[in-house]
């Protein structure tokens, strides 16, 4: 458990807050390119506690401060009417990357983008989407760096045919086996964890020791300050940012990156639009309708009884903690190793900014950041005594057969 003062320090993200200052040192997803429909030249954007508007300027875009009125809708709702820009207010740079507009709300020169797979793959191999969660960004991130939760929160009591599961997480077969991933997660629910710091954040390795001296290796990553990179299947990875709208609301922005085949964007968009409304990308299943909980489904099909979409499971879990999780009453265990390590990293970053040492933050060296590649995010199975080599071989084979330059 931590003190209320520390909980406030690491969760609040307004312009004059410690964690907000850290977030402003990085490019943040601001909007999907898909949101600018019909040639619309402007788009309201709410980001890091600021109400802004995305505007065309020349051949590119900027974020400008927009005037708010007392009767304005909630911060997450992108009302388009009567958008007034504050003259002389801050203007932030914007770049487009693979269907997402990224904005830099900090001061000075923006950092370079790392050479992550989601940025270096061709547009044909990347699909972007987003969704709204009504909770603080930190609890949204922390569920993504907890490898054990997949065995419980996403427990499927029936295993569907992976051939019918394109665009869905955990529906592949475990590497080099005929065992569905859902079965493996169900039968080996308590992995050993290894957490190590990297140039970009954290590398998290979950080891599920199986029969016949085999070990399933699942490598996921925390990308500082608020993103994750995890395997979706053997051929696709997910890079997901947990972007603060304000202290009590956040969006997840996800880039789905395929190594071999182009992404079926129409299918993946249709799958996700069945679960979200436009224009604010709020999930149709939410606390107002009990996330469509079905006790009969819970008895025979899924752990949550809330359908097969794992985003709904995560949403229920993180929103159920309250708008801002009360960490003064928590009791972390062995499965929370990555969460503990991340909070220490965040506190160090806050301290570095307070003492005038921004270069100590991850990926703030302008010359070295473009050289950061990957990160490795995959599932593999190998001999228990040599699981590391099996994981690296799996990644090497996947990259070698890739039609775009995925070399590391």
TrEMBL record:
Domain LigXa-like C-terminal: 110-358
Keywords annotated in UniProt: Dioxygenase, Oxidoreductase
Name of the protein this chain belongs to: Aromatic ring-hydroxylating dioxygenase subunit alpha
Recorded superkingdom: Bacteria
UniProt xrefs under Pfam families: LigXa_C
GO molecular function, a single term: dioxygenase activity
């Amino acid at each position: 458990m931590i003190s209320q003062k520390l909980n406030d320090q690491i969760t609040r993200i307004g312009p004059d807050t410690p964690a907000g200052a850290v977030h402003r040192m990085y490019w943040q997803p601001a909007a999907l390119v898909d949101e600018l429909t019909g040639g619309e030249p402007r788009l309201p954007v709410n980001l890091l506690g600021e109400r802004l508007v995305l505007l065309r300027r020349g051949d590119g875009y900027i974020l400008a401060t927009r005037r708010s009125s007392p009767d304005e809708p909630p911060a997450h709702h992108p009302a388009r009417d009567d958008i007034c820009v504050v003259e002389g207010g801050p203007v932030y740079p914007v770049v487009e990357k693979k269907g997402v507009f990224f904005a830099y709300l900090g001061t000075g020169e923006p950092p370079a983008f790392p050479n992550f797979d989601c940025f270096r793959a061709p547009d044909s191999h990347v699909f972007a989407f987003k969704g709204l969660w009504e909770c603080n960004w930190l609890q949204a991130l922390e569920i993504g760096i907890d490898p054990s939760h997949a065995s419980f929160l996403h427990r499927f009591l029936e295993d569907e045919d992976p051939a019918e599961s394109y665009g869905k997480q955990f529906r592949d077969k475990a590497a080099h086996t005929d065992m569905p991933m859902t079965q493996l997660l169900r039968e080996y629910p308590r992995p050993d964890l290894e957490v190590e710091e990297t140039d970009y954040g954290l590398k998290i390795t979950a080891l599920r020791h199986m029969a016949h001296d085999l070990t399933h290796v699942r490598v996921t990553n925390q990308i500082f300050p608020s993103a994750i990179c995890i395997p979706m299947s053997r051929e696709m990875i997910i890079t997901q940012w947990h972007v603060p709208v304000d202290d009590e609301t956040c969006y997840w922005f996800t880039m789905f990156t395929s190594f071999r085949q182009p992404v079926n964007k129409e299918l993946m968009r249709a799958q996700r639009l069945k679960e979200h409304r436009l224009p604010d990308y709020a999930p149709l299943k939410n606390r107002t309708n009990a996330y469509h909980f079905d006790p009969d489904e819970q008895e025979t099909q899924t752990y949550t009884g809330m359908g097969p979409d794992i985003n709904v499971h995560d949403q229920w879990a993180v929103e159920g903690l309250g708008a801002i999780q009360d960490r003064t009453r928590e009791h972390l265990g062995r499965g929370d190793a990555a969460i503990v390590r991340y909070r220490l990293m965040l506190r160090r970053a806050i301290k570095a900014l307070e003492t005038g040492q921004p270069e100590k933050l991850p990926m703030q060296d302008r010359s070295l950041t473009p050289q950061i590649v990957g990160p490795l995010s995959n599932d593999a199975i190998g001999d228990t005594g040599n699981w590391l080599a099996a994981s690296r071989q799996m990644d090497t084979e996947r990259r070698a057969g890739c039609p775009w330059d995925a070399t590391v």
